[in-house]
Protein 1
Amino acid sequence: MAEPSSSQLPGTVLTAADVARITDRMAHQIIENTARGGFEVVLLGIPTRGVPLAHRLADRIATFAGVQLPVGSLDITLYRDDLRLRGVRPLAETVEPDGGIDGRTVILVDDVLCSGRSCRAALDALTELGRPRTVQLATLIDRGHRELPIRADYVGKNLPTAPEQKVRVLMTEVDDVDAVLVEDAVLVGDQ
């Protein structure tokens, strides 16, 4: 049986074509803002879907600007402030990009920005790797509902949602399809 296309999934707000177009636009914005500094930039994806997004951005930047940015991943699990609330979760891998992060612009890449707590955890985890010159944030979806004073430098799409809704980013590398879905919360009595 064939996998459904992204436009056939319930709650689809962005299709695979939309995700590709948005990723291209974000790559152009990163080029525009970092070329002045000679591309002393590294991309650090926050697992799970921030990592493939970081690789895609690096690939598109290489296509558009002819510069291959180093890409790594930054596990934030042990730096989260909700560890005792959510139970045991597996650790992801932190991979330091070639050349490290010291003195460079680090762009943290995540799929969805909501409360800002994952980004806060990423900033804490980043101190274990070194001391970047500056830190920026790129996110595919910004849904608002901030609990901390954190904003993204590069936003693919602002997607206002109700607090009880869930935004799911699907990426081919993890989910076999590219899409962004908005799902309504399922109440216990509705099942």
Protein 2
Amino acid sequence: MSDCKTMRLTLVPAHTRTEAVLFASLLAANATPERVARLGLSGAALTALLRRHFVQPLPGPEGWPALAAGLPTPAWASNAIFVVEMREMLRRRADPMLHPADAADMATILATACLRPDHLWRDLGLTGRDDVTALLTHFFPSLVAENTGNLRWKRFLAEACARAYGRAPAPAPGCPGCEAYGECYVHLRQTVIPIKADDSSAH
């Protein structure tokens, strides 16, 4: 496949709904075979997403249709349970006005990003936390309203997912590799209890 600089990757929205803008920003930031695979969508899901939101380009060997056709089957190995649970939790919390497939696709993208070891906005290829906040606010507004402690989004999503399944809050699989892990999870550091010197000889 050609280098992304020469590929016809223009995305022309087919409507004015916000979903097209948000999906376009994610796709534009991940417009190479390697990066688009990191979104976690299957080829069929990405193809359907493109058809829902964007004007379809003429058939050809390059561009988004080719990227979608070349996507490998998503594989999460030992993190499959986390991804499935996170996707389901997010899907249930989606704005009911959304197309169910849009909610499911965004849930998949977010769950997959939580496996990677960086801030969520970097994992998604966005420019900052505000981009993630805007995305989450549109797709999952009731969930966003619960982040009253202004936690980092990956931590918040992981903890919300754990609570949804009746478990104690825990880091996402990608959190331990993040530069901010020690700051986010300082409460998980082992507490060292000093051992008092044996003063029995003084008696």
Protein 3
Amino acid sequence: MTHGTQTDTHTRYPGERGDWRDAATRYALLPLRIFLGVTFIYAGLDKLTDSVFMKASGSGSIGDMMRTVRDSSAVPALVDLALKSPVGFGYAIAFGELAVGIGTLIGLLARLAALGGAFISLSLWLTVSWASDPYYYGNDLPYLFCWTPLVLAGASYWSLDAVIRQRRQQRTGH
């Protein structure tokens, strides 16, 4: 029986600088955080500034889009819920995307923001992009999986969460 051997074990001491691999590991999720944060802010602002989208009916409206995908969605009940107030649903999605994007970008309540992003992506995948064939043509499923590492890891660097955590540790001496 063979066992794996880790060859580059080295205990880091406080203040000691690592090599480029250590830095790459520390900051690996930062590009994903920036991309998702900017994308969700843009998506929210795009919806809020699109006068056609924020209507209950008409070509290009949230209501028309929901009626179009209703019968092909995985969970038609979600679409029916949105159709009770399409404009309200449109605003909820837009403001949700803004909150998720801002929280992710600045790293404030980053895990909660990522969970919100995953929830929005899951909801959109089960409704709007469910009928994409083949499935990988729909973008909501990959977004869902992009949120997963941020739900698990949060934003440990270049984030307000890290600043808050550091100040808390300084106060308690830990």
